[in-house]
Design brief:
Keywords: DNA-binding. InterPro entries: Homeodomain-like_sf (IPR009057), HTH-type_TetR-like_transc_reg (IPR050109), HTH_TetR (IPR001647), KstR_C (IPR041642). This is TetR family transcriptional regulator. One of its GO terms (molecular function) is transcription cis-regulatory region binding. By secondary structure, this protein is mainly alpha-helical. Helix content is 71%, strand content 0%.
């Protein structure tokens, strides 16, 4: 919900359902025709609300489509919880989750294009909504990583860079500047930042013994 719509307090169940209907209508129009197909009057007609009511919930098309993007990302976040990635380490799990998220958006290229264009057009008036999109993206990355301990400052910075990379690769693919193979490679490269930002575990006595090289064959034994 935008700041204009939440100024009076939390949504009532009826208002929440109306808002969901607006988002469904905008999503359907974007999926069919991309950014240009989402016209506020058509959204209002499809959602069966007055145009003035629509503007009270979303002051502009950009506000509306950024909210659509947040909703889509929230669904991806829920999927990570239902089907956690199975990679052997945090970097592998993050790369797996973000690649899956990318493929999910790839199946709806016009919708993805509409959301990413809205995000790129967003000005300060959409700042809180853009921040929410960034927060959900970071939550997806953190949930996928399944770090054994709360993230360190370095890991938090790495998580933010990974989230920014995901948005950038999506934009590059939509604009035709990156192939699918390049997107996957970029996501895996960014995810490895988590490994670099993770402090090395101190070696145990057993580990240290295993690191001692064996004596060369034929070496003389002491006292032999």
């Amino acid at each position: 919900m935008t700041a204009n719509a939440t100024a009076a307090g939390p949504l009532t169940p009826r208002q929440a359902e109306r808002r969901r209907g607006i988002l469904r209508a905008a999503t359907a129009l974007a999926a069919r025709g991309g950014f240009e197909a989402v016209q506020m009057r058509e959204v209002a007609e499809s959602a069966q609300v007055a145009l003035g009511t629509l503007y009270r919930y979303f002051p502009s098309k950009v506000h509306l489509l950024v909210a659509v993007m947040r909703e889509q990302l929230e669904r991806l976040y829920e999927q990570v919880g239902r089907r956690p990635p199975t990679g052997a380490d945090p970097a592998a799990r993050v790369a797996e989750a973000l690649t899956h998220a990318f493929h999910a958006l790839q199946r709806e290229p016009r919708l993805a294009e509409a959301m990413v264009r809205a995000l790129s057009f967003a000005d300060r008036s959409v700042g809180s909504e853009v921040d929410e999109v960034a927060q959900v993206t970071s939550a997806i990355v953190l949930a996928a990583a399944r770090l054994p301990d709360p993230p360190t400052a370095g890991q938090q910075a790495a998580l933010r860079v990974v989230a920014h990379t995901w948005h950038a690769t999506l934009l590059a693919w939509l604009s035709g500047r990156s192939s699918l193979a390049e997107v996957r490679a970029d996501l895996h490269t960014a995810a490895r930042l988590l490994t670099l930002a993770t402090p090395a575990q101190p070696a145990t006595a057993e580990d240290e013994l295993q690191l001692v090289p064996p004596p060369p064959r034929g070496a003389a034994r002491v006292g032999g």
